[in-house]
Amino acid sequence: MALPKALRSSLTPQEIEFIAENQQITIVPTRAINDKFELLSGEFGPFRPPLKSKVPLWLALLLKRKGKCTIVPPVWLDAEYLEAKLEEERASAGFTEMPFMWLETANLLVKDAQDDIPHYEQVRNYIKGIKECRGNKAVAGLKFITIDLFSQGFLNLDNLGLMEVNEIKPFFAKAFDEMGKFSGALATDKQ
User: Fold this and answer.
1) C-beta separation of 134 from 85 below 8 A
2) How far apart are CA 166 and CA 170, in angstroms?
3) Which UniProt keywords apply (predicted)?
4) 24-29 and 37-39 as β-strands: parallel, antiparallel, unpaired?
5) How do the domains of the chain map onto residue ranges?
6) CATH for the stretch 5-18+75-190
7) Per residue in 36-89, pLDDT tens?
8) Which pLDDT score is estimated for 1?
9) CA torsion, points 98, 103, 108, 109, in degrees to nearest 10?
10) Are 46 and 33 in contact (CB under 8 A)?
11) pLDDT at res. 90
């Protein structure tokens, strides 16, 4: 499949979710599974309820779909925690600290493990709010850089997640290309 030129240098959201599925997450088996799974990322199992186990997110989602486990959401996927993060995000000029793959993980869990997330609707709304707030900050920062090309200002992009970096990458690449053209033209004009 041919991708548009703007997407050729970055990953698709599906590719990023695929990468995120390799991170470890905690599950609680609902029934005993005596088999061991020998995978490239390690050996998992046997699983015995009510003992918790750490497995890759993709395996947790597979077991969840088959009704063989419940997923223990990460501590940051809590309504109170996300509410505080949203308020902090709105009050701060920079980006608040979140796990590097927070958005991808949250999207996968909200989509496939809704019944394992307490206060699911609130969590989903807070995730959406945080994403929108952070996206607005990135766009505003990009406008600041492109409007104020020759000032000594900067945009702090600390604490952005993988999906967020990937979303703004094409815009930043184009902006920096244009900045390079302008600074090159200025250098030749001064000579």
Assistant:
1) no
2) 8
3) Chromosome partition, DNA replication, Nucleus
4) unpaired
5) 5-18+75-190
6) 1.20.58.1020
7) 989 888 999 999 999 999 999 999 999 999 999 999 999 999 999 999 999 999
8) 44
9) 40
10) yes
11) 96
| Dihedrals phi, psi of 68, to nearest 5 degrees | -105, 0
CA torsion sign, 48 to 52 to 57 to 62? Answer: positive
Query: Which tokens is 158 given?
Result: 């600390």
CA 110, 17, 143: angle at the middle one, nearest 5?
95
Average pLDDT of the residues in 108-121: 96
Helices (H), the chain: 13-20, 57-65, 79-91, 102-112, 120-147, 162-190
Buried b (16+ CB within 10 A) or exposed e, 122-140: ebbebbebbbebbeebbee
Asked if 149 and 182 touch (Cβ cutoff 8 Å), the reply is yes
pLDDT band at 154 (very low <50, low <70, confident <90, very high): low
Burial class for 158, CB neighbours closer than 10 Å (0-12, 13-18, 19+): exposed
Mind listing the pLDDT tens digit for each residue in 20-32? Answer: 999 999 999 999 9
